[in-house]
Amino acid sequence: MLAGKVMVVTGAGGGIGRDIALAMARAGARVVVNDIGASVAGEGSDAGPAQRVVDEIRAAGGEAVANTDSVSEARAAAHIVTSALDTFGRIDGVVNNAGILRDRFFHKMGDDEWDAVIKVHLYGAYYVSRAAATHFKAQESGVFVHMTSTSGLIGNFGQANYAAAKLGVAALSKSIALDMLKFNVRSNCIAPFAWSRMIGSIPTETEAEQQRVARMKQMTPAKIAPLAVCLASDQAADTNGQIFAVRNNEIFLISQPRPVRSVHRSEGWTPEMVASHALPALKAQYFPLDRSSDVFTWDPV
């Protein structure tokens, strides 16, 4: 499905990114395997993880090159794209998968914890996408696959930084899809449910948290790869600006915000009328303070 294409996969040294890189190589793509080799919190660096995935791809007869630049800095992110051009002569797609976690309840969160997560997830997706966009525009083709999360789309405890970044990624993806449609460039999101090193860092201090993580352990990263490969292929040419989720063997199309109810008053509104009429009229359609686990309540199959 990806024969002749060159794909960049960030954060591909392990977990979801690794399985996507391997699957894309099996589908015929030449792959830039990007991974800085940092800890879950984004600390340190190690060239080993990216190179090991490259070795796996080559051992299976595929073509790949390792890259250890950070997505969180514009110049380094641009070098990820140029490594595809320098090695393979072109770039056809980007999978923005790199990520870190620094979970903390909002009232305890430090600026450094906020900045670090936003820089990798949101700035990282922007920097790599922006570097690739120039080439996609020139060749009038290209595809982006971004990793979002139900932590941002729905909600979760202790992840204000991660949730804000991931909802921002969904909006970024939609904006790219709108702005670059005329250049035949597509942009879609996947919210993955899968056990990974990053998910393994989630606190499990309560029974509910332990049960949640136990369910996540049943969902392997390899389950995400088929959708990513398909979205990157020409067979998904009519799929653009969408948000999907993958939960084990289930694939979901996720809703996007739209008006659900309105009230009108020809004389206009005063604060008192809003309180006495508008809010009571709209209250029936209020959304509950759900977490992701409140919406996805059934065991993965």
Automatic annotation (TrEMBL):
SMART domains listed in its UniProt record: PKS_KR (SM00822)
Chain ranges of the Ketoreductase domain: 5-201
PROSITE patterns reported in the protein's UniProt record: ADH_SHORT
Domain of life of the native organism: Bacteria
InterPro entries, sorted: KR_dom (IPR057326), NAD(P)-bd_dom_sf (IPR036291), Peroxisomal_Beta-Oxidation (IPR051687), Sc_DH/Rdtase_CS (IPR020904), SDR_fam (IPR002347)
Pfam families, per database record: adh_short (PF00106)
Record family assignment: Belongs to the short-chain dehydrogenases/reductases (SDR) family.
Protein name: SDR family NAD(P)-dependent oxidoreductase
The species this protein was found in: Variovorax rhizosphaerae
High-level lineage: Bacteria, Pseudomonadati, Pseudomonadota, Betaproteobacteria, Burkholderiales
